[in-house]
Design a protein that fits this description.
The chain has four helices and no strands. By secondary structure, it is mostly helical. GO terms for molecular function: phosphopantetheine binding. InterPro entries: AB_hydrolase_fold, ACP-like_sf, PKS_PP-bd, PP-bd_ACP. This is Carrier domain-containing protein.
C-alpha cells in the first residue's frame, strides 16, 4: 500500500473499495492507496471502469483510473461526473409552457 491505511468515509468510497477489492483481490484497501501500486494494470482498469459504470450509472472516461488512481480522488471525480450528467439532463428538458 502506498500510505497509511485510511478507511472509506462515504458511501461512494465504500462502494469503490468493494469494487477495487474484488478486482484486485486485495484487502484492505484504503482511500489513499494507489490502484497501480496495488497491482492494477491497464486491462484491470478497463474492467473496473465497466464495473464502475454499472455500479454507479455514471459513465467514467477510460482514463479515469490513470488520472485519479486513488479511491478518494475517483470518488470526487464520480461526484463531479454525476453533477455534470444531472445538469445536462436539466438542460435537455423542454421549458414548461405557461
Amino acid at each position: 500500500m502506498s500510505s497509511a491505511y485510511l478507511a472509506p468515509r462515504t458511501p461512494t468510497e465504500h462502494r469503490l473499495v468493494a469494487l477495487w477489492s474484488a478486482g484486485l483481490e486485495v484487502a484492505p484497501i484504503g482511500v489513499a492507496d494507489d490502484f497501480f501500486e496495488l497491482g492494477g494494470d491497464s486491462l484491470l482498469a478497463a474492467e473496473l471502469q465497466l464495473a464502475i459504470d454499472q455500479e454507479f450509472g455514471v459513465e467514467v472516461p477510460a482514463a479515469a483510473l490513470f488520472l485519479t488512481p486513488t479511491v478518494a480522488a475517483l470518488a470526487q471525480a464520480l461526484a463531479a461526473a454525476a453533477e455534470e450528467a444531472q445538469a445536462a439532463r436539466r438542460a435537455a428538458r423542454p421549458e414548461p409552457r405557461p
